[in-house]
Amino acid sequence: MEQITENTAPRADSGQISIEARVSDIVRLGIIALFAYWTMVLIAPFLLIVIWSAILAVALYPLFATVSLESGLAEGKVAPLVELARRLRALKGQDLEEGVSTRLLIYCASLIDAGLPTIDAVRAAIIEPLTDEPDVKAALVEVARAAIG
User: Fold this and answer.
1) Residue 10 half-sphere exposure, CB side, CA atoms within 13 Å?
2) How does pLDDT run across 62-95, given as a tens digit for each residue?
3) Which sequence spans correspond to the domains of the chain?
4) 3-state secondary structure of 11
């Protein structure tokens, strides 16, 4: 019978992989490690931002869903309102005795869904209930314009 031989990696007489193959494998692993290191160096400055973005997205999604569901306004249009509420809640205790409640957000979104311009709805449903002081109202309107765009 005739034997068929296969082409395989070069092996030494004892059945071991040759030194050239080992060196080639080590060089390849070194290159992969170098690329992995460079990738981490490039990603590291943005990693904290990505982690906090994920945390905020998971934490705020129920609010988006609730306001969107109860008001009938699309989630994409609710997003600036939730961002505005977050900014105004951060001002609680600094000329604001209360923060923006979810119910106020729902009222505002309902007004927008009914056709009222966004800034007018924000003024009527969010800013007016929070304060009576004209200076504070004017400042909150500016915050709203910055958050809504």
Assistant:
1) 7
2) 888 889 899 999 888 898 998 898 888 888 777 7
3) 56-148
4) strand
